[in-house]
Amino acid sequence: MIKKSLLAAATASLALASAPGVAAADELVLGSFGGSFADNVTACYIEPFKAATGADVILKLGSSSQHAAAVRATAGQSDMDVVFADDAFAVQMANEGLLVQLDRSKLSNAPEIIDGAWGAEDAYVAAMLGATTIIYNKDTVTTPPTSWNDLFDPKYEGRVTIGDISGTTGWQFLAALNQMEGGTLDDITPGIEKVKPLVKSSVLLYSQADQVVALFERGEIDIAVWYPDRAGVAAKNGLPLAAAYPAEGAVGIRPTISIPKGTAQEDLAHKFIDTVLDADNQKCFSEVQFIGSVNKNVTLSDEVSAIVPTGEALDKMLFLDPNDMAKRLPEWTRRWQREVLR
Amino acid sequence: MKSLRTGALLLSPLLFVLLAAFVVPLLLLVPTSFQEYRPGEGIATDVWTLQNFVRIGADEFYREVVLRTIGLGIAVTLSCLLLGYPVAYLIVRGNPRWRLPLTLLVIFPLMLNLVVRSFGWIVLLTNRGVVNNLLIDIGLIDRPLRLMFNMTGLMIGLTHIYLPFMVLMLVAALQNVPRDVESAAATLGSSRFHIFRAVTLPLTAPGIISGSILVFVLTISALVTPRMLGGPTYQVMATLIYDEFMLLLDWPSGSALSFALAIATIFIIWISSRMTKRWAGLA
Known about the structure:
The structure holds 2 protein chains of 2 kinds. By secondary structure, chain A is α/β, with parallel strands linked by helices. Chain A has helices at 2-18, 36-53, 64-73, 87-95, 168-180, 189-201, 211-217, 228-236, 266-277, 279-289, 302-305, 311-316, 322-340; strands at 27-32, 56-61, 82-86, 125-126, 130-137, 160-163, 202-206, 223-226, 241-244, 251-253, 255-258. Chain A has 2 domains: 2-129 and 254-305, 3-Layer(aba) Sandwich (D-Maltodextrin-Binding Protein, domain 2), CATH 3.40.190; 131-253 and 311-340, D-Maltodextrin-Binding Protein, domain 2. In chain A, helix 2 crosses helix 9, helix 2 runs antiparallel to helix 10 and helix 5 packs across helix 6. Chain B has one domain: Orthogonal Bundle (MetI-like fold), CATH 1.10.3720.10.
């Protein structure tokens, strides 16, 4: 008897180990970023999706690279049905053959989406447009910055923060500096040399976006390389923050949404992506997250338009080819660890 | 024969867990560590290379992290030993009424979550933290001391977190030292210091060995505390392995580093236990 139950327990634990988190038929597992992003995804995308389909959505929180690592680890039998990831990581997953090709015929909102949002062979679609740019405290910085070079002004020494290369702003800022200094994607040395003094004068190299909120709150910094969407949310909560778009061009961020191979619910996953691309839901998300929309039929309120890049700032925006970036990021990271941080 | 079978049966649940959850996954990493990672494409399964291992020794950055990790392990072990021995001695040989409160005091930090304890240290050690503010207020320093994102922060945090393990090991060892032996030495005219050095200390050697090995291994494999107190920039091997896997997605390099860490650990444990045994006259 004891032997039998032991055996049963062992079999059960083996079964659990070999089938990680198999979702029930009416459950969709969504890999999302955390913080206010997850709250807003729930309010603007998950709620309408639940109302329309009756399906339940389970959130799995993590960063782009963590999601990519999880999708690779469970290759072909992913525990996530839909996943958010920055485009460089979406490309990495697509190149490793881990993503399902999106079927535009199942996405009723596809015609309303801007062309630049789609990945090669429709492996993924950008769900929003963000940016890496300069955020400053309106109370202490009287003349709005106009160039990346303004960050190097001695008056900001010890009053500035930039992101570590592990975060999106980190490598995007490095790429922007490199371009400003005449480097190319294959020759990052000018950018590395340029960023060194700023890393030294930075209060800290943040690795999570919300660390910057605390720094602004405590008055430890006047200026930062950060996300306008996070700044918009913080400004709404009472911090005196504004976004400035440098003349050299801010860097565009395309957080994407995609379906990992092995999901048992491709149709439901497509329905979720369609919900995300819907004009009303896109507007809802853009308004609360202060982030640009990928749907042509969305018009944003003045409050949000003041923060997101528009007009000239949008024209000058630097968009890095995610395919190039996926190939080069490891090398950039290694050089950053070895040459900048030491 | 029967007792052997009973022994094997008693061992089997633990053995099963160790095999299934530790040895097998580790073996699965062996082929990965010899493969090549091509950024943007993935892990190339058709090429076999030693490069991942060669780099650990050849690359200055990796070498620095390896040496830093081992140095940190030794430093934390020594400070736990120096701080823990008097406490353990007091618990065992002090006033019996203090025994329970002291033991509780030692165990108490273990009841708190690791993340909470590490976060507590951030609050204390950060540039505008409790420690720096206090030192500035009483006029000892002008600018905040850098207590985080460096060796100091990691030493403080890890010593605090692993001290209980050392103390508990030493308490067990000290309790096993027969008072008669010490009395005998005293009768023969030994001073108290000499008794401690020549009798008590060698007799507690097994506790010192096991406590040190425990603290050392926990320290060099710690991930949460070094990441929180060291930030993204001050790397030890565990955080480096995490980054290779989760950030760079370079699993071959991460696997090779994991093996290097495991092998270094086993080697150091072997050497230190041999040395200590010889010193204690047990070999």
